Amino acid sequence: MTATAGPRTTPEPMRIVIVGGVAGGMSAAARARRLNEHAEIIVLEQGAYVSFANCGLPYHLSGEIAQRNELLLHTPASLAASLNLDVRTGHRVTGIDRHSQKVTIQTEGNSYRLPYDALLLSPGAVAVRPPIEGLDHPAVHTLRTVPDVDALRERIEELLATRGKTQPPPSAVVIGAGFIGLEAVEALTARGLRVHLVELADHVLPPLDAELAHLLADELAEHGVDLHLAVSARAIAGISAVDESAEKSSTGAVTVALSDGTSLTADLVIVNVGVRPASTLALEAGLVLGPTGAIRVDADQHTSDPHIWAVGDAVEVTQAITGARIPVPLAGPANRQGRRAADSMCGRRTTPQAAVLGTAIVRVFGLTAATTGANQVTLRRAGIEHQVVHIHPEHHAGYYPGSEQVHLVASFAPDGTLLGAQGVGRAGVDKRIDILATAIRAGMSADDLAELELAYAPPYGSAKDPVNMLGFVAQNVLDGTMRQWQAQDLDEAMTMTFVLDVRSRSEFAAGHLDGALNIPHLELRQRMAEVAASAGGREVSVYCASGVRSYLATRVLLSEGFDARNLSGGWLTLQALHPNLLMPAPA
After folding, report:
1. How far apart are CA 255 and CA 266, in angstroms?
2. How many of the other CB atoms lie within 10 Å of CB of 385?
3. 419: which of 99, 110, 125, 411 fits an S-S bond (Cβ 3.0–4.6 Å)?
4. In which domain, by residue range, is 161 found?
5. What CA–CA distance (Å, rounded) separates 529 from 504?
6. What does the alpha-carbon distance between residue 279 and residue 93 come to, in Å, rounded to a whole number?
7. Does residue 181 sit in helix, strand or coil?
């Protein structure tokens, strides 16, 4: 007689509890489900929206993304249907009991405890609240969540509906000229508002090097944006209905007092001066935090507790160039961290967390600005020796219609390793920064950039792509073929050296450095005696418009025995950093 098998017993399914959705949390939840069909996966989100396109909010504010629903990527119902996830919105986790492995949850009318086998923290970041009196005024907004953009759109629609045709347009003050602040400025301008932009730093988009930031400032000014740089907002106050200085259309408006004594009137204010890690829950649970307040994690996203992982804007990462441990609030790293954490929770082999480059990009009206790696300020603060090169090539073949100038800055270590790069232009910037980000990740040098094979046809690039050109210029600098001077060395150049302008006479007449001698580069060989007499044995500091003609002139001078050096980036870069020192030719 054959024995029959008894009923099969299966172990209790693993319970994964995820605190916070959006990029990191939902990426982890989806990956965990794909790896473990039987796990119980519960996502706890304190807000009403668990999966939305945070980066798309400014473009919904502008109207480019017309339908609000386009921002809502998933709902609890869609996630339950597609991935069998238990998503609970309006559930705020208020405590973690690490000993019993339970979280305490507060809902609108209830509080309960939920056990976990694996806990993932994805709390994100919270907006920095600057020391400005009056931040709680109803006219003050932020731009981080769907309710934020809803409130802004409602206010704008109200302003536009009540504004008469003969009245001035509604006005807004945006405090903070970072990535989100610039996107907000563009969105508000697109809706017809008059925008004032206030920034504490001395240039817009502080992560960008100053010699590129001026291009963005010019673009903003051309679109009617009123810039207030190197000042802070001190106070925001409502305008009384009986205030004689207030316009009749300013009901509900405010005044924003700045540190330089300026007072701005606005119908709404957007404050975006940065974010900080939302790590209070982790701190109260006794998890280890870094000095920046971000949650410390290992290469697999483990916290200091073996049953707790953390991802996203709240965690510490390693900056790829300096080695600093900092939070980097970007969607790309958060998504990859969520995937990695899920792999680790499910016992899978992971791809360990790589150091983060902080690659970022923003559109400012017709311009694009992008950055990767470490900028010059970061390198100097970290004490990292480097050489900086500036180039201003066309984004595709100049003889093909529609070419646009691309302004690129790159920093190289003494051994040629690429450390960081930035770009601004109307076309082709994203392509070059993505290539350069890949090059940094691969540890490429100036030699490698010079030898890169990139797709070329006249509508797309040049036989010598701007990326190749960065490599060529850096090779010349690093091997001594071209000695250079930087725009920030202007005072030393003008007092200690002989300055030679090799641009055309018409360019020189339009504006030049005081005391510079103008010898167009095609005439230089015939006028060497004049250079020798004028220089009087001093070093010769050469410049042209972009650094190309002055490079040729510098090579000629070096071959004739002069101690010569070329201005990196030429007049374009010099003008960006020293607009007040540029002397027009006498009438």
Report:
1. 6
2. 11
3. 411
4. 140-271
5. 19
6. 12
7. helix
Residues 449/439, Cβ–Cβ less than 8 Å? yes
Among candidate residues 495, 513, 493, 494, the one with its CA nearest the CA of residue 503: 513
512 and 579 share one domain: yes
Structure tokens of 63? 């109207």
Q: What's the residue count for the chain?
A: 587
DSSP secondary structure of 240-298: PTT-TTS-GGGTT-EEEEETTS-EEEESEEEE---EEE--HHHHHTT--B-TTSPBP--
Q: For residue 337, which of 377, 297, 292 has the smallest C-alpha distance? A: 297
pLDDT at residue 99 tops 80? yes
Over residues 464-491, the pLDDT tens digits come to 999 999 999 999 999 999 999 999 999 9
User: Phi/psi zone of residue 6: left (φ > 0), alpha (ψ -120 to 50 degrees), beta?
Assistant: beta
Residue 524: CB atoms within 10 Å: 20
Partnered with residue 18 across adjacent β-strands are: 43, 120
Q: Phi and psi of 338, rounded to 5°?
A: -60, -45
**DSSP state string for 491-506:** HHHHHHSEEEE-S-HH
Number of Cβ within 10 Å of residue 556's Cβ equals: 18
Name the domain count of the chain.
4
| Separation CA 401–CA 403 (nearest Å) | 6
Report residue 101 as tokens.
């492995």
Structural domain contains residue 83: yes
Name 363's bridge partners: 368
Q: Looking at residue 244, what is its pLDDT?
A: 44
Token pair, residue 358, equals: 């902080």
pLDDT tens-digit map of 172-208: 999 999 999 999 999 999 999 999 999 999 999 999 9
Q: Is residue 526 part of a domain?
A: yes
Closest CA to 578 of 586, 567, 564, 565: 567
At 207, give phi and psi (nearest 5°). Answer: -65, -15
96 pLDDT higher than 50 = yes
> What is the domain-level CATH number for residue 308?
3.50.50.60
> Does residue 144 share a domain with residue 246?
yes
Helix axes 22-35, 331-345, angle to 10 degrees: 30
Of the candidates 234, 232, 174, 176, the residue with the CA atom closest to the CA atom of residue 204: 176
CB atoms within 10 A of CB 162: 12
Do β-strands 517-518 and 498-501 pair in parallel, antiparallel, or remain unpaired?
parallel
Same domain, 176 and 247: yes
Rg of the Cα trace of the chain?
A: 28
Quote the Cα angle for 99-103-105, to 5°.
155
The SS3 call for residue 18 is strand
Displacement of CA 208 from its chain's centroid (Å):
8
Tokens of 395: 């984004």
- From the list 247, 231, 98, 235, the residue with the least C-alpha distance to 162 is 247
In Å, what is the CA distance from 291 to each residue of 65, 279, 288, 296, 328?
A: 39, 12, 10, 9, 14
**Furthest CA-CA distance within the chain:** 117
Instruction: Provide φ and ψ at 237, rounded to 5°.
Output: -140, 145
pLDDT tops 80 at residue 4: no
CATH number, residue 540? 3.40.250.10
Distances in Å between the alpha carbon of 125 and those of 20, 311, 391, 558?
A: 11, 11, 37, 54
